[in-house]
Amino acid sequence: MDEIEKLKAKLKEINARAGKIRELPVEEKAEFGRKINAEREAVLAEIAEAERKSLDTEVEPIDITAWSGVNEKMPEFYSAEMGSKHPLMTELDRVTDIYQMMGFEVMESRQLDDEFHMFDSLNFPKEHPARDGYDTFRTEEGLIPPAHTSTMQHRVLKKYKSRLDEGKAIAVVVPGRVFRNEDVDATHEHTFYQCEGVYVSKDCTMGDMLGILREFFEKYYKQKLNIRTQPGYFPFTEPSLEFLIEKPKSLGGKKGDYLEMLGCGMIHPNVLKMAGIDPTKYHGFAWGGGIDRLVMLRYGLNDVRNFESGNLNFLREF
Amino acid sequence: MKISLNWLKKYVDIKIPNDELVRLIGARLVEVEGVIDETHKYDNIYIVRVEKAEKIPETHLTLCQINDGESELIQVVCGAPNVREGMLAAWIKPGAIVPASVKEDAPFVIGKRKMLGKYDSNGMLAAADELDLGEDHDGIVEIDPKMAKPGDLLANVFELNDLILEIENKSLTHRPDCFGMIGFAREVAGILNEKFEYNDEKNELSKNDDKRIEIKDENICSRYSAIILEKHGELKKKYLTWEDCVLSKSGMKPINPIVDATNYLMLLTGQPLHAFDYDKFIKVGKTDEPKIIVRLAKKGEKLTLLDEKEVVLTENDIVITSNDVPVALAGAMGGESTMIDENTKNIILESATFSLYNLRKTQMVHGIFSEAITRFTKGQPPYQTLVVAETCAKMLEEGFKVSAVMDEYPKPEKETVVKITTTEINALLGTDYSKSLIVKTLENVGFLINDQNEYLEIIAPVWRTDIHIKEDVIEEVGRLLGYDNIKPTLPMHATAEKNANFELKREIRELLSKFGANEVLTYSFVSEKLLEKVGLNKNNSHKIVNSISPELQYVRQSIVPSLLEKTYLNEKLPVEKFAIFEMNKVYQKDWGFDSEKVPVEKNALGFVVAERKSKETAFYKAKKYVEKLLEDLNIMVEFLPLNNNEALAKPFEPKRAAEIRLKDEPKVLVGVVGEFKNSVRNEFKLAPYLAGFEIDLDLLLEKRSRKKELKFGIKKSEDLTVTTTKTYAETLTEVEKKYPEAKISPLSVYQPEGQEAKNISFRIESF
Question: Nearest chain A Cα to B626, which residue?
């Protein structure tokens, strides 16, 4: 307490001195003002620090090994009805379960990556305008919080390429959190979740890609589905497509309503080459789509901002 | 980009219904974001002849009698200065909507009304802006009598009953050729399985002057063509034209005949053009005849653009100079000093290509997003610069004649040849297309094909700068014939191994939510302020340089601080009591980089419990949760006094928190559980009942094991109370020694008033 009192007295003294500014000649006023303000700031900071310290010293120690406070009831868990799992995480579990049953291993995506994995290893030419389309964040060191889960493709290919030598296929899905420098509104978040898929084998075709994706969505929506595609453009796949499904009945879909679910394509030979896979011997396909949207569709939600809000009125509904 | 279907139909013979056409374009060419239906925008607007026009004295108005093709003349009051007897005009009939207002909430419906209290006025004679066909409001539009007669519908004469496709430009990033109607139409023909025929205007002019263009670096400008036009007559814009309507439907506006011609050709061919005032150009360069130098700008060089803004150039910008004095920011915008105006006599018409990489930076640095730079940044090919300039000269020939043709093309593009077999194509697509079908499909869109029997030699057309490898050709075949015609197949697979990390998180999620906790997700980026509040060093966080806001500037080092922020929000709602948790990734600079040269990443679990009114000790609730969790994962730990100074320990109060360490390896820290420092709680404005934990998930994954053997059937249960001054843990150890086989659980801790010793009670169950 003493120390705080002392500092407060010092502040008072500085304030008194500050009043003298009026008596100074004009040319000295600015310099004097600057000095006295700096002093004042310094003392204010010291006071704040001292107050913080004094707050933290007035603390009663407890027996950290015990199960309850002295003369208190034993603590209890909250009831199961209060609990909830985050809908995005539940959805990721649901999605990866299906892929896992279909033969895909799961590898989680990173949240801080570099230019090489995000762009170079994916056949984005240096300084190519396609890099702009991703609105990436960057750190001071030039690291990138990835803007798509494709940032893991190179790692997946390298990690599992021995499978190819064994005559097997690489089949991996990569769920993860991704980031885009975007203004947030009801339909846009700068932070969201995607799931990437990578498949490589000796003789897979685009027909296999369409078959696997249709199979996934049919299992996911538990019904037969019509699918559709649109040409797309991604530097890391050639050909590149957008994949659509006819809106499922469970979501109130009518015939002819189509939903864009993901981007996909045959892996560009350069991407395979960079990971040490011979593109004349093997080919593959890859895809990536958003998870947030699946949840929005499932529950008929209309504001994506709820997901990272931490608002329990929203989360306890799940 | 906007594409008018009526314009498209000038180049491709389309026999299928519009909705089918739109679907096919979406399925085989580009993403169609929307379709603007303008089929009724011009309903009830007629071509009329002004039969009589009398000035109304002391007003700017004219009383007109118009002929709409019916027998009786109709009276309309018109305010335009250019209305005159004998002209053909566009008449908006009473009851019709003014086209410019169709998109508004309350479209403007034209009626009959009395003007100046005595003149009946029926409908209105329209200006270009009212028709949404330009910005001109100085006079009404005039229609060429060669094109129409009174009573014709305006929409029929100019084919305004149209559908406009809104194209997502990003889906054409690699297709500069499709940013012109000809290229777009060629693709549509290909999709419809028709051979595209376009009578490319033959290059009649050839270079006759090579002294006046100098390209300093061929990497920034692969070709620069220019035509000098000399004025010999008046270009007088009189009538509404088809081109005006095309410009408007494509989202541009008619401005003046020269600019309109360059813009129209850009929309048609994808090649942007620029017109300089010749006389101003040589004046700026202080030369007798133009000396065009294309070079990189010098740092700090200044240039005032057409929009009167002065830009400070960077060393990346490409400039067009007149004898080294910058007069245009290449590809982006012309300069004010050489701008054409009503007094322009002679013109330098520029048609060039520039490095998309430089222009892309220019676009970002100077914030210029014109139709021209949008096309240049896709990488316009150089093959057509001169032809397009020549076509433009022809469009302006009424007023200008060609006096010189210049063309600098230092390194002509080589043609791309790809060798591929039908087997390779079918193997990747999963199809069985015949050789003849493949050949025809590619030929329809301009590929040349030499059948070498074992393989096809495919020569890409000059406009296809995106074709390099086999896969590019395979894409063409698959796309034009329709990916939707590829039969989905399913390779068979056994079920895969589960990912242990993912499974661990799932178990924790199940467990904690079953015990009433709520899983939350919070942002991976936090504010400097948040780091300060919990006493973390911001220099240990990776800093985002282009963050959306100061709230999201640092990559987080731990989870709990984000949860404390959400605790405040929920106490405010108010939620009386809750436990929130999050499993996510954390990064600290001092962890360094891993073998892939990316920052070491750790998985952490954060947990915070809070109650708004409870007076009990929150520590024990948080501890109960973490103990239950670790017990389920069969990880044996000890709770030791908090002496740790790691980031995750910072917010915790050492006197009311514990380090969680492995029982067998006390050096290994699992995490920290406890209450928070008063100062931290104060900063977040939280109620006193507050505690939490943060633990290392990677360690849990490594140390977890399957449950020990389960014990069933309690034989004997008794309660035991010990009076002691020791800690709970010490007392428990003693009790355990006494009952080595039993399950011992705590019941209560009671301390009678004024006594030092506590009564600690246990329940002892034997099997």
Answer: A77
Q: Kindly state whether residue B607 falls inside one of the protein's structural domains.
A: yes
Indicate if B87 and B217 belong to the same structural domain: no
Residue A259: what residue type? L
pTM here is: 0.84
Residue B507 CB contacts under 8 Å (≥ 6 apart), including other chains: B632, B633
Number of Cβ within a 10 Å radius of residue A133: 17
List pLDDT tens digits, range B48-97. Answer: 999 999 999 989 999 999 999 888 999 999 999 999 999 999 999 999 99
Domain extent for B179: 2-38+168-191
Write out chain A residues lying below 8 Å of B573, CB-based.
311-313
CA B240 to chain CA centroid, nearest Å: 36
Question: What are the backbone angles phi and psi of residue A284, rounded to the nearest 5°?
Answer: -160, 180
Domain boundary among B408, B441, B463: B408
Residue A78 to residue B628, Cβ atoms within 8 A: no
Q: Does B375 share its domain with B429?
A: no
Q: What is the ipTM of this complex?
A: 0.90
Same domain, B259 and B376: yes
CA distance B187 to B447: 12
Q: A64–B674: do the CB atoms touch at under 8 Å?
A: yes
Q: Model confidence over B201-210: pLDDT tens digits? A: 666 777 777 6
CATH of domain A87-315: 3.30.930.10
Closest CA in chain B for residue A228: B484
CB B523 within 8 A of CB B552: yes
A with B: how many residue pairs have Cβ under 8 Å apart? 357
Q: Would you say residue B708 lies in a domain?
A: no
Q: Which residues contact A232 (CB under 8 A, 6 or more apart)?
A: A240, A241, A242, A263, A265, B31, B171
Determine the distance in angstroms separating the CA of A299 from the nearest CA of chain B, rounded to an integer: 18
State whether B655 and A111 contact (CB < 8 Å).
no
